[in-house]
């Protein structure tokens, strides 16, 4: 089965291709099909993911999978949340992972206690069989940790270099990719999604 991934993020594509491989699905990037990015006007991950999945399915004629993910920092009341991808632009930087990390560390510079640096990475996956699917599959994953004082590690993308996971004593970017994928917010959501697809789409 071919499924279009409603994202142009190559990091997400690589992770989800690896995670969903056991189902024998062929995951295509929407960029391969010349599908423009969807608007993301909503304030929750699930609404944005559903909007992106329906958009990609409508323009491709294929089933679609969308991931809306972000960083929720306790000290910021759960922000940047759905605005994570554009976080750096709020502070005069160009959009991009490195600038997002730079802006976050600058904004948290005065928060030195571990309890003040608590945060969670959240991933919500939504899959639709068609643009008008009345029963989308919805899966979510969450990993709690702390924002490190400085970037560490070279694996991963996004906020992985500063997302310190206490149970591992390392950031996500320091962990081997296989370990990160097994324990990440996206990994948890992908396992739920695989179970839903097996139960409702593939069985």
Automatic annotation (TrEMBL):
Family membership: Belongs to the HAM1 NTPase family.
Coiled coil: none
Protein name: dITP/XTP pyrophosphatase
Described purpose of this protein according to its UniProt entry: Pyrophosphatase that catalyzes the hydrolysis of nucleoside triphosphates to their monophosphate derivatives, with a high preference for the non-canonical purine nucleotides XTP (xanthosine triphosphate), dITP (deoxyinosine triphosphate) and ITP. Seems to function as a house-cleaning enzyme that removes non-canonical purine nucleotides from the nucleotide pool, thus preventing their incorporation into DNA/RNA and avoiding chromosomal lesions.
EC code(s) of this entry: 3.6.1.66
Named cofactor requirement(s): Mg(2+)
Reaction catalyzed: ITP + H2O = IMP + diphosphate + H(+); dITP + H2O = dIMP + diphosphate + H(+); XTP + H2O = XMP + diphosphate + H(+)
Organism for this UniProt entry: Polaromonas jejuensis
Lineage, opening ranks: Bacteria, Pseudomonadati, Pseudomonadota, Betaproteobacteria, Burkholderiales
